[in-house]
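Hello K.,

You asked for the raw outputs rather than the summary table, so here they are, unedited. I folded two proteins back to back in the same session to keep the settings identical. This is the first:
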Amino acid sequence: MPDRSEKEILNQLFSDDGEKYPVIDAEPNPEVAKEIQSYIEKVEKEQFLAQPITDNYGQPLVSPPAPQQPKIVLPITQNQYLAGFKQKVTESIRWLVAWCGRLVKILGNRADFRKNEI
């Protein structure tokens, strides 16, 4: 039996309903493909604003995005972090320490432990 597409099978199964599923060639027209490719390239380019966009009264509507790399302070100190690995798996501090360790690995220098309170 020759290889049939899904839409051809649907047309055969539901022929009495009067609804037809169009069978489309897999190869697109090369002229259309070039047109689509140029559109996709235009959409994928990021837009950066040189100056903020303001309204008639001088109020800023849209400002250029500033790169943000905030410093993240973890909810435990470094001593608590080291002591937490010695706790049992059933203790919540153990899971908090594991989560903080994951954040340290992901964020690197951006993650910092809470300072010791004296």
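The second followed immediately with the same parameters:
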Amino acid sequence: MKEKQNKAAALQYRQGIDATPSVVAKGQGLMAEKIIALARAHGVPVREDRDMVEILSTLSLYEEIPPELYKAVAEILAFIYKISGRF
């Protein structure tokens, strides 16, 4: 049985600059590992959510999150704000 490759997607949202978050990196396997390692090295919170990464992986780089994903991405942002003490 073939093991599933890890996937990763990175979002960027600059309050007051961006209208909505956008996908700024995505990849699988070694690229996913590099995305996660870079995030951790720079203190960027990492959240594991296989369903969300599957959806985000279908978007193009720098594509804004479509309205149907706002609720899910809002949950991710709330998670990030909570663990960073900004919530």
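The chain has one domain: 7-83.

Happy to rerun anything if the numbers look odd on your end.

Regards,
P.
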